[in-house]
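In response to reviewer comment 3 from the previous cycle, which asked for concrete evidence that the modeling workflow produces usable outputs, we include below a single protein chain processed end to end. The sequence was submitted unchanged, and the resulting structure tokens are shown without manual editing.
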Amino acid sequence: MERQGTEAAVKKSERIQRLDERLRAAGVLHLRDAAEHLAVSEMTVRRDLAASPDLFSYLGGYILPAGGERATTYRLDAELDAHAEAKALAGRAAARLVEPDDTIFIDCGTTTPHMIEHLPVTGRLTVITYAMNIAARVASRPNTSLILLGGLFHASSQTFSGEEGLRSLERLGISKAFISAGGVHAQHGVTCSNFHEVPVKQAVLARAAIAYMVVDSSKMDKIKPAYFARAEQFAGILTELSD
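The workflow returned the following structure tokens.
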């Protein structure tokens, strides 16, 4: 019995090490993907997570680094005035790519809201978002349908996260997606400050016919903690220099 218990403990330690390595590479993992990677049941992964609170957090079906929800100092209100002119120009450049009958996704942040006042008012535009600050502006527009993805609300970024919003995305078509980022780096890819945003961004990138990154140039060559994409997954990077 003692030998069997030792073998089980070794297997568990190996699983935790492999899960930690995979999470460091991916930034965030769905429980199902973690179970497939380790060739065990989801219940076994849950037990491993519960045994390792110093390494992992679990939220809405997703595995995050421990403290992932608290590890960021990003606050939407604190970012509003930073590089405001550049953000406005980047948002206007993005809006010019939208056609009257498009179904578009607009990401969270302080650059993408600048798109809204420049969007077409003819035709019937549909806007999908998980950001409250985007939804509030879109709601008052004429000839525009709003789809707000729900879930757990994060006040610091004014966003929602969780399985509910991800399931909604699976049923939606997206002609163009406009994705924000906190960092764009040639070697380390595209990153953001909040781990809970990663599943939504990745799901949208998988669903959209075409995706654009919308950032001001201060984000270039920067790295934030939550990785979510490679730069080549985007059709273009829209900055103030694109206007």
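Residues 2-26 form the longest helix (25 residues). We consider this sufficient to address the reviewer's concern, and the full set will be provided in the supplementary archive.
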